[in-house]
Fold:
Amino acid sequence: MSISFMAYCPHPAIIVPEVGGSETAKVKKTMTAMENLAESIQEKGEDIETVICITPHGPIFQDAITIWQTESLSGRLAKFGASQIKLSFRNDLELAKAIVKHAEAKRIISAQLNLQLADSYNIDLALDHGITVPLYFLRRGISEKVKLVPISIGLLSYQELYSYGMAIRDSIEETGKKVAVIVSGDLSHCLTETAPGGFHPKGQEFDQKLVSFVEAGDVLSLMSIDSELIEFAGECGFRPLVMALGILDKSSFDTRVLSYEAPFGVGYLVAEFHIKEGTEPS
Structure:
């Protein structure tokens, strides 16, 4: 497997200066961590051919994982008051089709998002903020020629999401692509009374456990987090993380937590995964 870079990133639009303005002072830790990630990916930029970005905010199906199959991809932050920000990429259709094939072999359905499917379900083909916010920061670390494969989670079981990650891994191995993986997600939305999900005492417990397990690279404990705790936390980042763990299934890896903060009642985690090539799973 040839993954040059993997990171877990939050996606609040407020961390983008053109959106947050003076409020960005409250998320300085997160912004600095994202800038550090951009420097890290830049060190490997010439080696990276394709970015895979896993988002919880794209089109979501009950029984399938969404993967874009259009040649051109673009996203804006217009709904957050920054219409001047537009990111555009070419889709790596070779890798996207390989992922669909390997997922099918594991009996997992991929909703292949093309113009026809978008028309049928009234889906907006634009990249959502779960993709555009992290890539706003990381784009300076990658070549303009780098392609993108956007993937949106589905409401499948955690085991199926993990298996889909394994299909992504198999596809990377088959195609020989040099890939960066961006896992997009925010943690609990229930950390304060003014948080988007209101306050729930389990929110902080969930965040503490997840951050601790990520830092330790403890896959078993991550996959064993109680389902009720996840529900009470009101998060959007657990399913993308489970899929990422599937990608790492055959690898030994170290993790580094760059930052965690929750100034607006939502947990923002930035972490980098360092994969040890040529190792066997323990």
User: Anything to note?
Assistant: The chain has a mean pLDDT of 94. The longest helix spans residues 158-175.
